[in-house]
Amino acid sequence: MAWIIAVASLKGGVGKSTVALTLGTTLHAAGHRVLVVDCDPQGTCRTWAAHAADRGHDGPAVVALDGRALRRDLPKLAEAADVVIIDTPPRMGTEARAAMMAADLVVLPTVPGAADLWALQETMAVLEEARALRSIPAAVVLNRADRTALAKMARAALDELGMPVLPASLGARVAFGEATLAGLGVVTYAPDSAAADEARELTAAVLAALTNEEGRHDRK
Questions:
Q1: Which of 20, 42, 79, 194 has a Cα-to-Cα distance from 62 of 20 to 30 A?
Q2: What pTM was estimated for this model as a whole?
Q3: E strands of the chain, at which residues?
């Protein structure tokens, strides 16, 4: 049974596709069977996959689905994967709701900044509506979060709001963008870089959030 991770945000520009691709390529490089489902009209994951194919690079499978197809086709597609990562649109519509309802974990990217944290609260409010139908674990990941006073303030604000925050974050590093343009994951593009270390740490944190101490599915 595949783990299903939905990467969601109502606000664009927070690095949602970067987080989805970072998780997908890092898990793939570690030997997991990964499927990335691109529901975002911008198609960043699909464009990345096309670049990877043109250059002959190995990477996770990427498919495009809309909301209706997501509900219909995801169970069958997930049979061939260990992990499914859904990149949702930057708005709350059919695709995002369907992704949340299917997910074992909803990852909520945000960047340090007041407007982004306010938008995150709106995303959490929509998630709470979905939680009325079933229990859906969720955690925030800080993106472009260097060791600055603003990043520290953002973490403190999230703590005050009671939002669970993953212990790993992604910094504002050029290697992430360069890897995407090259059709690679950062752990393959620059394996010894700080960005690759952050990618591995974030992936480990997401896996820890998905599993219990015995390493079994935790879907209570």
A1: 194
A2: 0.88
A3: 3-7, 34-38, 61-64, 83-87, 105-110, 138-142
pLDDT in tens, 127-172: 877 787 788 888 999 888 876 666 677 777 777 777 788 989 999 9
The answer to whether position 129 is within a domain reads yes
- Residue 64: C-alpha distances to residues 41, 69, 188 (Å): 9, 9, 24
Give the model's confidence band at 101: pLDDT under 50 very low, under 70 low, under 90 confident, else very high. Answer: confident
8 Å CB contact between 8 and 117: no
Closest CA to 73 of 91, 93, 98: 98
Q: Which two tokens stand for residue 161?
A: 């709001």
For residue range 27-62, what is the model confidence (pLDDT) as tens digits? 999 999 999 999 988 999 999 999 999 999 999 999
Range of the domain at 16: 3-210
- Helices marked H in 4-113: 16-29, 44-54, 67-78, 94-102
* CA dist., res. 102 & res. 74, Å (int): 9
The reply to whether 218 falls in a domain is: no
User: Which residue has 């591995």 as its token pair?
Assistant: 200
What's the structural domain count of the chain? Answer: 1
Structure tokens at 25: 């390529």
Residue 157 DSSP code: H
- Residue 12 resides in a domain: yes
Token digits of residue 120: 């995150």
- CATH number of domain containing 15: 3.40.50.300
* Alpha-carbon torsion (113, 44, 30, 66), positive or negative: positive
- Let me know if residue 206 belongs to a domain: yes
